[in-house]
Design a protein that fits this description.
This protein has 13 helices and 24 strands. It is α/β, with parallel strands linked by helices and 530 residues long. The longest helix has 20 residues.
């Protein structure tokens, strides 16, 4: 039997207290926004030279040894050959800039994944450089834009027989993900590098929290220091750059590096007074992306309710932060200078990341922009770029640069599990229970967005039979209080029989809707069979 008339929610009827988290950013006075430093007639350009970058150089120039990593080898920025070739490229950049009178206006040199530089130039200077035989491409700097719990289970990663986590032990151990985005909030529990001390199961119960005996017996277990959860990475070459609201000590063995890039952005754009010139995430996008990619398993709390355990796709992976996206005044989503992004890609490769997460997009359908080409060189050297497909669509041609490039792994949402946490259940009386409760709609009943809100009195279901391990409130048998339940909302205990069975009995008794209250600590999406 498919129920088509009775809306149903599963609610988590508990209200644990949630302590308010402290502000991660220290209070500092608002300041005038920086920016608009480019003189009249100048703008930032990115110039690409013909010689290969260090990741692709095979040793064809006399006196300069090959720097391209051998198949399966790692790129070592500290190797003497790489250092020497990098100095050669930088000297070439400076020589070209001097030839057009702009040697003091260089913002960045790119040497590893892309051979070129970013500089403030007049249009005439840019044209002169474009005419040089050493120069392959010249682009005006452009802005890029950021693209905006149960995904691992939904994708099958946690299946006990063939899931990547259990069957192959693939949890990201030893992998470094470079997140090029809007920074990170270092105090987030998803990025803690310690694991809680082991506590006996009995000491995790309500008895241990509420009884004097439990408090006394479990005191020493609950006051143990957390243990280190990650070891050192001997080959890591990154750095943790301090800045406004972000100290070098904010990095740990989970967040193993943090850098920021703002030179290109500040040349032509103003900075929001709330933004911080440091790896600190004010936008929130970068923290969100880092947690999705590599967040540790933590409890999710919404509206004071403990709703589930959530984790990133590769919870054992390390995170290296490259902040290249910044808030403009009044904006809520960061934007990114291509010149800054290009240097972030450069440093990520040089630092030794295994994967670059690039949730940044363009309005260009081509695949020959500077970041496209840098990611191509990185891919050829074994560094995979994972790029967001973007927020547009679903019309053809909505996946743009660099997500459209064949050398990146493009990620987009084509389906969803349907899980959504909302304060969808409001209790008005009695006063001791009044409030908003977390609830999830069933997957097989009419959606509330189509039916509208349902209002009525809640009444406990009664089937007059505890059954085998069951309850008289679980509605696994026909209800005996149908006369009282007609026109009201049935309140049903979860357990023993299918949700479809419970709701069929409530509907037969005349209930206008049903709320199944959870007996297992976390809301789920109800389907007909569980």
């Amino acid at each position: 039997m498919r129920l088509n008339h009775l809306p149903c929610l599963l609610a988590l009827l508990s209200l644990p207290t949630l302590a308010a988290a402290g502000n991660l950013r220290p209070a500092i006075e608002d300041r005038l926004p920086a920016g608009a430093a480019v003189e009249a007639g100048e703008q930032v350009y990115i110039v690409q030279l013909r010689e290969p970058p260090a990741l692709a150089y095979t040793g064809r120039r006399a006196g300069l040894a090959a720097t391209r990593p051998r198949d399966g080898g790692r790129f070592d920025v500290a190797a003497p050959a790489v250092q020497q070739y990098g100095e050669h490229l930088t000297a070439q950049h400076d020589r070209l800039l001097r030839s057009v009178g702009a040697w003091r206006d260089k913002l960045y040199s790119y040497r590893y994944a892309f051979n070129g530089f970013a500089a403030k130039l007049t249009r005439l200077q840019a044209q002169k450089l474009r005419a040089r035989r050493e120069v392959l491409n010249v682009w005006p700097d452009q802005l890029r834009y950021l693209h905006t719990n149960d995904s691992p289970a939904f994708l099958g990663l946690l299946q006990p027989t063939n899931g990547l986590a259990a069957a192959r032990g693939l949890t990201g151990e030893g992998v470094v993900i470079g997140v090029i985005d809007s920074g990170i909030a270092p105090g987030h529990p998803s990025f803690d590098d310690r694991r809680p001390a082991e506590v006996p199961k009995l000491c995790q119960s309500r008895w241990a929290e509420e009884s004097l005996l439990g408090l006394w017996l479990c005191f020493r277990w609950k006051n143990q220091d957390a243990a280190p959860d990650y070891g050192e990475l001997p080959d890591w070459r990154g750095a943790c750059e301090a800045g406004e609201g972000f100290a070098a000590s904010d990095c740990n063995r989970k967040i193993i590096g943090a850098r920021y890039y703002i030179n290109g952005f500040l040349e032509t754009h103003f900075l929001d007074p709330n933004e911080r010139i440091s790896p600190l995430d004010v936008d929130g996008h970068g923290t969100h992306i880092a947690a999705i990619a590599a967040g540790k398993e933590v409890r999710a709390v919404i509206g004071g309710n403990d709703v589930a355990r959530i984790r990133g796709m590769a919870p054992r992976a390390r995170i290296a932060v490259y902040k290249a996206c910044w808030l403009e005044p009044g904006q809520t989503r960061g934007s990114c200078s291509t010149a800054d992004l290009q240097r972030a890609i450069e440093d990520a490769v040089a630092d030794g990341v295994d994967i670059i997460n690039y949730s940044v997009g363009n309005t260009d359908i081509g695949i020959s922009d500077p970041d496209d080409l840098a990611l191509l060189t990185a891919a050829d050297a074994g560094v995979l770029a994972v790029v967001a497909a973007g927020n547009d669509g679903p019309a053809p041609g909505t996946i743009l640069s660099p997500a459209g490039a064949p050398w990146v792994l493009t990620v987009g949402a084509s389906s969803r599990s349907g899980t959504r946490f909302d304060k969808a259940l409001r209790v008005n009386a009695p006063a001791s229970l009044a409030g908003d409760y977390l609830a999830l709609e069933a997957s097989f009943t009419p959606a509330l967005k189509n039916t509208g809100a349902v209002t009525g009195q809640l009444l406990l279901a009664d089937d007059d039979s505890a059954g085998f391990g069951g309850s008289s409130r679980d509605a696994c048998e026909s209800l005996v209080n149908g006369a009282q339940l007609a026109g009201r909302i049935a309140l049903i205990e979860r357990g023993l029989c299918t949700f479809e069975t419970k709701l069929s009995h409530a509907e037969a008794a005349g209930a206008i809707a049903a709320v199944v209250y959870d007996n297992q600590g976390g809301p789920i999406v109800m389907n007909g069979s569980r």
